[in-house]
UniProtKB/TrEMBL annotation:
Taxonomic superkingdom: Bacteria
Protein name, as recorded: Amidohydrolase-related domain-containing protein
Source organism per UniProt: Pseudorhizobium tarimense
InterPro entries given in the database record: Amidohydro-rel, Metal-dep_hydrolase_composite, Metal_Hydrolase, Metallo-dep_Hydrolase
Domain annotation Amidohydrolase-related: ranges: 302-444
Length: 454
């Protein structure tokens, strides 16, 4: 049989994304943006192609689908509806994701609009947005920031955003509105600076928050004046803050948005059941019980527990809650955050615990103040530590995500006949060294460089 293809990729070791299949050596053929040939061994003599990639000593896997990322769109940033990131920031984020093998990305800030995707959009990465335009989510954003929200964002509804092309619901709640990451690296440091003129490290912000309201954001769990004074001394802040001032500052920064953010869980879970779109929730200590509650009340909805390795959990807690959520059919997503190589604020203890307990369905980056580690770095770590075999690990970022988000990625995520030709070709000994990336059958990263599509 003779057949002419657009691309032929030969000699590579191929992981198909189904969680099991790992072909020692295989041929992949691409035509008109789709996968049309997948066969073990060497190419048949009759097979020819416009372009041939020799993938010997490489690992070939489906393009990564990152369904929890931020600041890749010039619209309201984060669930706090903060001012839009600059074009330069957006380009930097998009390039980093693409060079890390992500071919489909869901920007889950939640209040950006599908029409804002097109601003400055000549980038080859396939970027889509989610929607969290419900009344409580918008009020919660306004209570903590909201500087990026204009009339068109405030008037948007979830239904209208879905009609305009949003691909999922969420992120409901966020580090800004639920006392998490962005409170540590942005809002608490800003408040301390306003009040005292001094800059503090996010780790110090975390200690102050934990001292005043605890990991569950309950002021009644907080330290008494004497304990808080000791903590201020340990943090090197006793010369500029007394316990009462520190308490007021943390309460004012963290608490006003919490109730509103949790009210958004109910609105969006109900919407997820009604519309059939999956919904992403901020999963951390102050929100996990609310998430368990909505999972109980909306059993037909596809609900995703975002970044279930959130640093506000202890490892044991993260696993126990993940098991309880899975029992209610909630999808357990973990995020790389800055857990694997950067370790600016976070470490991999919760990620390891969840992977080793067999709880993880999908993996994403989230944002971690822009310090996010890449998905393949985390996958390489999982593979090297023998926590999972390579086929199962790669599925966390490909096939499993496609199954969870059919409206976003139903046509991709697997190396299978008829699927969209989104592919990554990486170093076989380290899947985080990305050499080539193809999207819709077009080479967009070649030998580690982003090709401009003009
Ligand atoms: Zn979050």
């Amino acid at each position: 049989m003779s057949m002419t293809l657009d691309f032929l990729i030969k000699g590579g070791s191929v992981i198909t994304g189904d969680g099991k299949t790992h072909l020692e050596k295989a041929v992949i053929g691409l035509s008109r943006g789709e996968l049309v040939v997948i066969a073990p061994g060497d190419p048949e003599p009759g097979l020819s192609a416009g372009h041939v990639i020799d993938a010997t000593h490489c690992l070939v896997f489906p393009g990564i689908i990152n369904a929890h990322a931020h600041n890749c769109v010039m619209g309201p940033s984060m669930p706090s509806g903060s001012a839009a990131p600059s074009q330069s920031e957006v380009n930097w984020q998009r390039n980093r994701h693409l060079l890390a093998g992500t071919t489909t990305l869901l920007n889950v800030c939640g209040l950006a609009l599908p029409e804002e995707l097109r601003i400055g959009d000549t980038h080859p990465l396939d970027i889509q947005v989610s929607t969290a335009h419900s009344p409580a989510n918008i009020r919660s954003a306004l209570s903590v920031d909201g500087k990026g929200l204009h009339q068109r964002h405030l008037q948007m509804t979830v239904e209208t955003a879905l009609l305009a092309g949003a691909k999922a619901l969420g992120e409901v709640g966020g580090g800004q509105t639920l006392g998490g990451g962005a409170q540590e690296y942005k809002f608490i440091p800003q408040a301390v600076r306003r009040h005292t003129g001094r800059d503090i490290h996010p780790r110090i912000a975390r200690r102050l928050r934990d001292a005043v309201v605890g990991r569950y954001l309950r002021p009644e769990d907080g330290a008494n004046d004497e304990q808080l004074q000791d903590e201020l001394v340990a943090c090197g802040l006793a010369d500029i803050l007394d316990p009462a001032a520190a308490r007021n500052l943390i309460l004012a920064s963290v608490m006003p948005s919490v109730e509103l953010a949790l009210a958004g869980f109910e609105e969006i879970a109900r919407c997820a059941e009604r519309t059939g779109y999956p919904a992403i929730f901020h999963n951390s200590t102050p929100s996990v019980k609310t998430l368990l509650g909505v999972a109980e009340r909306y059993p037909k909805a596809t609900l995703i527990a975002g970044h279930s390795n959130h640093p506000m959990f202890q490892p044991r807690e993260a696993v126990d809650y993940a098991v309880a959520l899975k029992r209610r059919n909630v999808i357990i997503d973990v995020s790389t955050l800055d857990c694997t190589t950067t370790r600016w604020r976070n470490d991999p203890a919760n990620l390891d615990a969840l992977v080793e307990a067999g709880c993880v369905n999908t993996i994403s980056t989230d944002f971690a103040g822009g310090h996010w580690d890449t998905i393949p770095e985390a996958l390489h770590r999982i593979i090297r530590k023998r926590q999972m075999d390579p086929a199962a690990a790669i599925a966390l970022a490909t096939g499993n995500v496609a199954r969870t988000f059919p409206q976003l990625a139903g046509d991709r995520g697997f190396i299978e006949n008829g699927k969209r030709a989104d592919l990554v070709i990486a170093d076989h000994a380290n899947c985080a060294r990305i050499r080539h990336v193809l999207i819709k059958g077009k080479l967009v990263v070649s030998d580690g460089v982003v090709l401009s599509d003009g």
